[in-house]
Amino acid sequence: MEVFARGIKQRELLDWGGTAFRVLGVSVVDPPAFKEGRGRFRTATPVVMKGTGLNAAGVRTTRQAWLMPTDPEFPVFFQRNLRRKAETLGLDPEVSLTAISWVGAKRSFAVGRGLKPGAPIEVELTGAPETLQAIWSWGLGQANAAGFGWVAA
User: Fold this and answer.
1) Nearest by Cα to 26 from 2, 57, 52
2) What is the pLDDT of residues 83-134, one digit of tens each?
3) What CA–CA distances, in Å, run from 18 to 13, 14, 15, 21, 147?
4) Spatial contact of 109 and 59, defined as CB atoms under 8 Å apart
5) Which residue, of 25, 52, 107, 144, is most buried by count of CB atoms within 10 Å of its CB?
């Protein structure tokens, strides 16, 4: 992150997907310690999560099965996503979603050839402090590199 911050500091203008941003200042924010192995995370941008697209008979009805935080499947897919992120980073994957404490308004964004719907959320998680710090930095849900699921500092 330090290298990324230094790179941005050297620019007056940042072109992000065709949008020009004037860079006035850059500072790196360290993640909370999460010493107790618990954390509350609220996103500044919508979280997107894709489900199976299967109906009750087990037949795929859609390939674009976007889940909202209020959908019954959401917690299972969300927790699996968190565990895959931890495994990708070589961290303890025993992270659990204990509550979804707030869901913001649904928003859809045009990405590529389609729309990705989602909503900002606040969740309570438990897990190893290092894993929670990594998730805080990485973001919640899918498509974090595209700007979805960024955790508010």
Assistant:
1) 2
2) 999 999 999 999 999 999 999 999 988 887 788 899 999 999 999 999 999 9
3) 12, 9, 6, 10, 14
4) no
5) 144
Report the pLDDT value the prediction gives residue 1, as an integer from 0 to 100. 63
Are 105 and 93 within 8 A, CB to CB?
A: no
Residue 63 has pLDDT above 80, yes or no: no
Q: pTM of the predicted model, to two decimals?
A: 0.84
How many helices and strands, by DSSP H and E, does the chain display?
3, 9
- Distance (Å, rounded) from C-alpha 15 to C-alpha 3? 18
- State how far the Cα of 45 lies from the Cα of 120, in Å rounded to an integer: 5
Q: What's the residue count for the chain?
A: 153
